[in-house]
Amino acid sequence: MAAAALVNLGDLEDAQLSIVLTDDETIRELNRTYRGVDRPTDVLSFSQKEGEDDGMNDGLLLGDVVVSLDRVQNQAQEYGHSFERELGFLVVHGILHLLGWDHEKSDDEVRMMARTEEILGGIGLTREAR
Q: Which CATH number belongs to the domain containing residue 27 in this structure?
């Protein structure tokens, strides 16, 4: 799913990123440490493109996506779709954040959600997938 997202997003098939699958306790600690929010979340993105350019990033190292599998399971049940669909959604969502997408404004959120759905649809992970 990550590879499909990178291909869909353009000339990024050679890009590198890490995907960390963890639990609520670990992601809560990361959320508290790096965002000042003391609760678990579903996905965090740590971009290598933020801040000063130290010359080490040649544009192919995107960063890290951290996903709570506890949240994946709970949200899949809550939204009525498969575990795989929810995991795919969060991974693609995290990758878009690595590439600078955000959802602070409602029109940005609509755009980001549409792109996420386009990518997921291309690999068969539609909302109806169970």
A: 3.40.390.30
